Amino acid sequence: MDFDSIRTSTLAFVEANQGWTPLIVGVLAFCESLAFLSLLVPATFLLLGIGALMGSVGIPFWPVMLAGALGAALGDWASYEFGHYYKEGAKQMWPMRRYPAIVARAEEFCRKWGAGGILIGRFIGPARAVVPLIAGVFGVKRLPFQIANVTSALAWAFLMLAPGAGLLGYLKG
Questions:
Q1: Cα–Cα distance measured from residue 34 to residue 49, given in angstroms and rounded to the nearest whole number
Q2: Per-residue pLDDT tens over the stretch 15-32
């Protein structure tokens, strides 16, 4: 199945089953934020498409946005805990071992920014799912990590969904 087919069928399903939109967005955000799964799921483009669809068919914004934030925060939390549990061994697992340059950049990023890097990393494509894992490996304290995680998840979900939802709603009205 190619990307266009996935996009088309996902958006058609969301339009036909609008009540499932929060769950779908939450799962997509989780996949986008989980260290290994983010490489396999084209969630960013689907979330942007769902945001636009929400605006055009009138799906309520806030429940979907909060579900997206929850999914993103849970994905980062799982990545963090994985890194915290496996420590340096996490970097030797697939796909981390295949991308040593990205891992090295994420390590440097965590060294420089600490938990604040979670806030920044959420908005940097490939780093989005790697930074929380590396933060766990480095032993960034849980409370600062979770504060940055939840704060950035809320902002990220809003920014992923609001442009399409708001812009189309504004143009329609």
A1: 20
A2: 999 999 999 999 999 999
